[in-house]
Amino acid sequence: MKFQMNRRQALISMGALGSAAAFGLPARAATRNLAVLHLASHAPSFIAFERGYYKDAGLDIELKFFEAAQPMAVSIASGDADFGVTAMSGGLISLAQKDAIKVIGGALTEQKGVTGAIILASNKAYEAGLTDPSKLSGKSFGITTAGSSFHFMAHKIATANNIKLSDIQLRPLQKLGAIVGALTTGQIDAWAIQPNVAKKMIREGAAKQIGLVSDYAPDYQVTTAFTSTKNAANERDMTASFVKAYSRAIADYNAAFVDNKADDAERDALAKIVHKYVESDSPFETAKQNLIEGAMRVNEGLALSLGSCVEQLEWFKSEGMVKDAITNEQLFDTSYVKTI
């Protein structure tokens, strides 16, 4: 069917748009994609989406799901997604050097005294003596890709235990699900992962806990918020609106699950939102308890732990995974949030 608009209809439409502007009504925003993973660390992404915080900020956001951090960075660089919240990867840093991506904030963080990423051993490896991270030499360790957060965590664990990283067999398995399967079946010996995944595996008898990443990297900025360089430079109002909306959800999440300042009704309401996207195959009460027990702090206002991020950048350089020439200014735009 072919639709046509005559001059009178066009003028009416133009008048309606003008009226909307005159009365201060927001024009319909273009749809923007937010790259996410099915992890509890992305809880604020889901909370802001379900509670309408993005819409309140004038953004029409859709969630775009991924299986690993590197493809998220590629998606932002290509324009398939506008924002992402995930670990700094070698791929992300390389894209920043090409002026395609900017890190604009910090999200999930390791904090001493708060259970963060858990170091796991397969049942087979545990029974063979892998009961502590100090025994990882000669063992295999699951990562998604070279230059991923899992790779960096392996480095921090190895360094703290005086183990050469080259003495640990890193197994790149691309997707989180593949690593879960490999650890469960004993095809790899160890892994480190956020508590909602780790505790589920422990609860189901699929793996054993042998340590905590926070013991080796207490101030590690695990995930960052990033967008395209174009958005950061030329779409400042939109980018600031995203930070504002996401920050509202962070405040909800921390109050309910980290600082225990929310009442039971609020905690349940938020847990139900997260359960739609994380551990949706588990009973709600089980998933809620796992979320509570495994909650990690997300930086208020998306504040960026710049020292930790620079440490990661320097490590990537030392390992030859990114070029030495990349500067902090190419990677970070610190104009949107507080640095800590």
Automatic annotation (TrEMBL):
It is found in: Periplasm. GO terms for cellular component: periplasmic space. Keywords: Signal. Residues 1-29 form the signal peptide. It comes from the Bacteria. Transmembrane segments: none annotated. SUPFAM superfamilies: Periplasmic binding protein-like II. Residues 41-252 form the SsuA/THI5-like domain. InterPro entries: SsuA/THI5 (IPR015168), TAT_signal (IPR006311). One of its GO terms (biological process) is alkanesulfonate transmembrane transport. Belongs to the bacterial solute-binding protein SsuA/TauA family. This is NitT/TauT family transport system substrate-binding protein. The lineage of its organism: Bacteria, Pseudomonadati, Pseudomonadota, Alphaproteobacteria, Hyphomicrobiales.
